[in-house]
Amino acid sequence: MSAGPETRPPDLRRATLDAAARLLAREGPRGLAVRRIAAEAGCSTMSVYHYFGDKQGLLDAVQAEGHERLRAAQSVRRETGDPEADVRGTCLAYREVALAHPDYFRIMFADTPPGLSRPHGEVRSIARENYAAFVDVVRCWHERSPLRTDPASAAYGLWATGHGMVVLELTAHAPVADRAERYATTIDALMAGLRR
């Protein structure tokens, strides 16, 4: 049954995405139940089908939303005019987005649930564009101050390190104290090591 006009969220599509991300992150593939997602979002199952078509469309939309949030946060942090500061800011934004939207972050990098396909081309395109933009920022840094390695390798090392630390933090395997400082210190140390 659909929520009444006085209780319907102002952005039903976003509420449905948030509900799907929560349930998927909490319960894995079992969480991708349209009826439960609709109940959590305060809408009808028909609304879910209207916006997303089917479970595959819903999963794709959740992953696309996560990548869009990452893109928005990182693009703001790479507009300082200082390529080295832009690299650092982009790395820090990665952690900030993961902690602000942990359910989306988990789904962005989760295995595809049984019975569904890998993310469609648009989702993969957004993810590739995000990463390519990061490589471009590292390339600008390299052009300003040559690095010990090529920009693609430097970008991969920074991303893999940051991603690993974020995953450890989200899964409660990281030390409790000073997580933000440890993350920033590690990125700074790696960047220092990349300088020629």
Automatic annotation (TrEMBL):
DNA-binding interval(s): 33-52
Origin superkingdom: Bacteria
Keyword hit for Transcription: yes
Record carries keyword Transcription regulation: yes
Domain HTH tetR-type, first and last residues per copy: 10-70
InterPro entries xref list: HTH-type_TetR-like_transc_reg, HTH_TetR, MT1864/Rv1816-like_C
Keywords, sorted A to Z: DNA-binding, Transcription, Transcription regulation
PANTHER family, per the entry: HTH-TYPE TRANSCRIPTIONAL REGULATOR BETI, HTH-TYPE TRANSCRIPTIONAL REGULATOR RUTR
Record's protein name: TetR/AcrR family transcriptional regulator
Native species: Pseudonocardia oceani
